[in-house]
Design goal:
The complex is a heterodimer. Chain A is an alpha/beta fold. Helices cover 36% and strands 23% of the residues of chain A. The longest helix of chain A is centred in the last third of the chain and has 16 residues, at 166-181. The chains are: A alpha/beta, B mainly alpha.
Amino acid sequence: MSAQLQFRNVTFGYDRHPAVHHLAGEVARGALLAVVGPNGAGKSTLFRGIVGLLKPLSGTIERGGLGVRDIAFLPQSADIDRSFPLSVFDFVSMGLWRDAGAFGGIRGRRRQRVQQALAAVGLTGFERRAIGTLSGGQMQRMLFARLMLQDAQMIVLDEPFNAVDAKTSADLLHLVQHWHAEGRTVLAALHDMDLVRNHFPQTLLLARGAVAWGDTAQVLTPDNLIAARQMCEAFDDEAAACAAEVASARAA
Amino acid sequence: MIHDLLIAPFTEFEFMRRALAGVVALSLAGAPIGVFLMLRRMSLVGDAMAHAILPGAAVGFLLSGLNLFAMTFGGLIAGFAVAILSGVVARNTELKEDAALATFYLASLALGVTIVSMRGTNIDLLHVLFGNILALDDQTLLVIAFNATITLLAMAVIYRPLVVECVDPVFLRTVSRAGAPTHLIFMALVVINLVNGFHALGTLLAVGLMILPAGIARFWSRDITGMIAVAVVSAALSGYVGLVLSYHAGVPSGPAIILVAAGFYVVSVLFGSVGGLLRQWFPGHHLEA
């Protein structure tokens, strides 16, 4: 099976400090991959790099022929201005951007697709509600409806089940499994290890670099989890230039 | 009696009809811009930009006298320069846009005052500061209408990316490259409408017909389209009532228009159906579901 994502010694970070250091490996097309690790491990940074919001400090990333705009991304919802006066229907219809663009009307078939996406996440009847009036779980359902409409080959989910109740989690997980069954590549940053063990065949354990990567059962061992917990979160202001990068720059 | 009070000023005097046409054109274009400024938490950015425009218009006045095009051009150059420079600094450095804008508009203001004082001319800036809506000639009215038309067309083009950028900028960046150009076009429209407004209301009050109606609209609609409609109507109504008031009471028209808008704002804060104080104090019985 060909690779959907290839990391070639890639480093992502901020202000020259690496948040994800020298990551190498590949994600197969159609994979269902959990990305786990403690807070500050670099999960969100890695995802921002995958969807093109952050440029690598060094190394490269290949997306298996996909452009960054062909990837659907669910960020942590803090980035959304919930006070903006927009209805749930209008918000979800943003997912049709690739189809409708900046000018296409949301009528007929497109309107029907929005209704279907809302029904799939259990938000029928919420069409005219302002987004600011939704609960945390309803908000997450709405974001999943928008993701569905993006109809992307690769879907990247940053902590998709955070602060949602068990039923919403189960419903949204069912959608993730449905996308996987359709052959889409799905990456999800998660904290619930039981959920990962039970539903995600592949796992990347991250702690500012890959601690382990492969079949979930082999990755989520006590030793690996302890190693990940020992990660140093803070940037070192006095750090020297990365020796590996200096050496590879000299060789080039 | 009612005809004398509300309609006669416009049927009898051409300058009143021109003023009304001008204020309606300003409302149609400026109020939607004001709604987005408010929703992007940039209400005071409009005010800062108005200050940035002043020196440009003053330099235009200095070079060519009370020439419509020189002053408009000067204002546009100064406004665009400040908007673009502060945008470039904000997007490429740690400085946030409001701090960058504060720096550049103050520099622009200081530069304008310096240029004027170096020429040693005691120019009459009252026209630029407070405008004169009762003295709109054909040319000025055409410029206002032209700018309003450009604004509405440009808003139609950037409307969807602008809304998406306001609500979820990260989403827009992942699906389109439209974010930066949209922001730039929007800031250009802010400048164009402030320059448009200064002919009628002066640089200091031009922003009033953009921001006050937006504030009013927030109390009457939960939906962006409804808010824009309320803002346009309340801006035009403020213009009409302000003109009638200034005609009968003999007060200056520009400030009268803004004061009427401020009156509508107070009424909206008290009685608005969306979050108005009265609604909060007396919410009525709760519903079944």
